[in-house]
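Interim report, section 4.2 (structural modelling).
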Amino acid sequence: MDHENYPESLLRQILKDTKTIAMVGSSDNWVRPSFFAMKYLQSKGYRVIPVNPKAVGKDILGEKVYASLKDVPEKIDMVDIFRNSDAAGVITDEAIEIGAPIVWMQLGVRNDEAAARAEAAGLTVIMDRCPKIEYGRLNAELGWSGINSGVISSKRFKKPGAPGRPGRFSSRRP
Amino acid sequence: MSETPEQPDDASTGDDDEFQEYGFDTLAIHAGAAPDPTTGARTTPIYATASYVFDDVEHAASLYNLQTFGFIYSRLTNPTVSVLEERLAALEGGRGAVACGSGHASQLLTFSTLLTAGDEFVAARNLYGGSITQFSYVFNNFGWKCHFVDPTDPENFRKALTPKCKAIFCENLANPGGIIVDIEKVADIAHEAGIPLIVDNTIATPYLCNPFDWGADLITHSLTKYLCGHGNSLGGAVIESGKFDWAQNDKFPALNQPNESYHGMTFYETFGDFGFTMHARAVGLRDLGPTLSPFNAFLIITGIETLGLRMDRHIRNAQEVAEFLEIHPKVKWVSYAGLKSSEFYDLGQKYMPKGPGGLFTIGLKGGYEAGIKVVEACELCSHLANVGDTRTLILHPASTTHRQLTEEQQRASGSGPEVVRLSIGLETAADIIRDLDQALSAA
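Predicted structure of the assembly:
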């Protein structure tokens, strides 16, 4: 798979099929990017389960923190990695072990070898993106901050912030 | 909060899977806009609202902390203005844009994000006179020192750089007339020094030139000019490419260090390639307030829809008028890069193959006095200070807009005593020529 440009339909499908996200590297510090993403994704209806060995047992945004992916009792649809690119390798292998279908690495996080291993095991891998930003981009909200969403539509969104059905897409990955 | 994530009924179909490239004219009409969700209204509503209700206090807190996207107060965001911002970002091929009250305001937002007191920057000396004044005086008072250089040799930028320089600034197609800067070379020089190149793309517009393609990192605009196109609204904008690495050195603490007013959040880390845009909005607009009115944004959005059409006509008319003036007995020289006689003709072919815009200067044989007589004798051309209107505009900078500069500064910026500037409009070309001909006979 081309890990520079992801098809809009793939990102939409992932965001649609995902119900429960395990966020690895989740911080209880409310100023950290992972907290921002967790809060936003929760507000959009996703269940986000924090994983951080340094914060085990704590409560982040109403969810109990687990030490590792293997400790999470729920079925995980997406493993969202807020760790550096090296750590992403180990976490990806754990994601393969627990049978999570999607591995998503945050902005600036890229591990091509781990991605290859995951894809060989049948997983879908997204790298160097943020699900909060992609959700916002595909649902018009990112445009509210003057960001180029790359989406052109003549259809009416059902309501602001909720996705409608944009007719066509623009390629220009900003 | 709903049980399952809100999604469309049919998230994907086969035919919208592949990337689509849209042409410039399509983006000019559609980028950033969509029918109003509540009413289906097709054009962009003018949201004449100062403020917006919160769903609850949690929603409010999330907005203030930048944890969710939305509208708080029109000083920072407004739904009409955001359509304009996204459109500008799309047209320039950039990542994000912040619109503001004027071109001057866009410069204030840009430099206040990049510089703190004691910092410096290098700027081309061939700039709109108002920019020269802003850089020389009020920016100086802020503690931002500007070094002006002759941009016709890019090496001059390199020679002027000091360790405290945080940016290079130039107009790719310089006001008042005819000078084109080799921005690809200037971008390399900026990047070797670890600083961004800011290009003011006002006179060229994204229809003629895309500075990001040539290495620029930030683009500023006076939307008042060709983008609005009809002389009815002031506006400005700064757009980022999303490609500059703000963490490559320690020169940009505003983007790279924790921000106290956001409880220690670091903009570049949190927002990545639109970190500059978020800062210019969430700190720049918030604290300085040079906000664009949604009424102006609506007029500018409407004007942009015909940008391509208008620029083609501006160029066609400008070429015809420039060729007429080039051989006129009262005219000493014409500085328009569309003329083969221009030393910038080749650069024009490289950077603006569709044409070098609609703005140029002429030098009158009769000097300063002739300049005054010509502008005052026009009956169709409008004697006023502006550029990029449907109407042809004429100006004698030395006795008006550039009067506050010294003669040395005037000449350095291309507005010496004998210079008349023309912003060729969309009137029938023969009428423009006839009016200039009769005005020149008075010179």
